[in-house]
Amino acid sequence: MKFLRRLLDDLGNRLERNKFLKKIKPIWLASDEFFFGTDKVARPIPHIVDYIDIKRYMSFVVIALLPVVIASIYFWGLRVISIILVSYIFGGITEVIFAIVRKKEIHEGFLVTGLIFPLILPPTVPLWVVAVGVVFGVMFGKEMFGGTGRNIFNPAIVGRIFLTVAFPNIMTSNWQAPFSQGLGGLVKFSADAITSATPLALFKNEKITTDILSMFLGGVPGCIGETFRLGIIIGGIFLILTKISNWRLPLSYLIFLAIFSVLGNHFVSEKIALPLSQILSGGFLFGACFMVTDPVTSPFTKAGKWIAGLLLGLTTVLIRGLSGYVEGVMFSILLVNALAPLIDRIILDLKYKRIVR
Fold first, then answer.
1. Which of 103, 156, 230, 235 could form a disulfide with 116 if both were Cys (CB 3.0 to 4.6 A apart)?
2. What is the rounded CA–CA span in Å between residue 209 and residue 201?
3. Model pTM?
């Protein structure tokens, strides 16, 4: 590490002396902070001392996603690694370009976005579609608003919904069944795969309910990272215990999804599934554990988190059951992202009355 420290210091000095090289200073700063942390600290008073920073925050989310990533490689094969690499390369290049043009630092926020985005894609998605989606998501979901910490929408969801609208056949048909026997996808290829409908599509189109245990352990078709629900739950609990995410949003989402599923199934049982099937199918668990908990795009007030959970549960059930889309999680999260500032504003206005003089 001492050699790396000297190397970065020498490169920093060269950047300061050369006008052309100085333009790539954001890359040098990002590398320095990635390996050695930040030297920017707040004064002790009146702040509470805590060593959490963006790098630590994002690193914990990546760690929480590791069980899902490992399971995804097992279920879908080594091609998953290619999809993740394409996401990081093209999304990272987009972030670097914006940082250089703005002469701003590169933040570690893309460490998570670059990993979450490929996990919410179908396993058969072409690599060029991955590149298009991640570039669109980073540009219009984050950079257009000013970068990390200023974005209104979750950039991974923006990219995913763009691909769903732009390439519906690629994103919604020919779902590959996971390789779940022996060494799984590690020794098999897409040519050996069997295609079938997802649990949500089976219920919506044929009124067939999928086996609960298969959905829980990842034996059904779906997006790359949404099938191994046990790993998702483990990662979500890890984030809550380490206080990276707040428990109120995923819990409220779960509660209200169950409530509205029961009510919906009572009135239109042929269109709205029961709570357990709703919870263990589609991207609900992945969205609840890793996407609605994003502190930038979700409400920050405690009451606001419960209201967001209510809206998420209601809209997810309605979109799944009554719309032309079999999945409603991504659209629900995007809607709540848009309403989050308004929700917090209303809560604060109700809690803290303005003094009229």
1. 156
2. 10
3. 0.81
How far, in Å, CA of 159 to CA of 148, rounded?
16
**Residues in the chain with pLDDT < 70?**
1-56, 106-109, 174, 180-197, 204, 206, 354-357
As given in the structure block, the two tokens for residue 256 are 């209200």
At residue 195, the 3 state secondary structure works out as: strand
Report the SS3 class of residue 133: helix
Please check whether residue 129 is in contact with residue 170, taking contact to mean a CB–CB distance below 8 angstroms: yes
Distance CA 9, CA 32 (A): 9
Cα–Cα distance for residue pair 76/271, rounded to 1 Å: 30
CA 185/CA 201 separation, integer angstroms: 24
**CA distances (Å), origin 105, targets 18, 26, 49, 55:** 18, 5, 24, 13
Please give the Cα distance from 65 to 244 (Å, whole number).
13
Q: Which residues of 124-133 are buried (b: 16+ CB within 10 A; e: fewer)?
A: bbeeebbbbb
What is the Cβ-side half-sphere exposure of residue 100, based on CA atoms within 13 angstroms? 14
Using the 8-state DSSP alphabet, how is residue 77 labeled?
Answer: -
Q: What is the pLDDT of residue 25?
A: 53
Distances (CA, A) of 125 to 130, 132, 196: 7, 11, 15
Number of neighbouring beta carbons within 10 Å of residue 349? 10
Owner of token pair 């990219």: 159
Q: Return the amino acid letter for 347.
A: I
- pLDDT for residue 116: 94
Would you state the pLDDT for residue 28? 47
Residues sharing a CB contact under 8 Å with residue 53, sequence separation 6 or more, in sequence order: 37, 38
φ, ψ (nearest 5 deg) of residue 301: -80, 150
Helices of type H across the chain? 2-17, 25-36, 54-76, 79-102, 110-119, 127-141, 155-166, 168-172, 199-206, 212-217, 229-241, 248-267, 275-280, 284-290, 302-322, 329-351
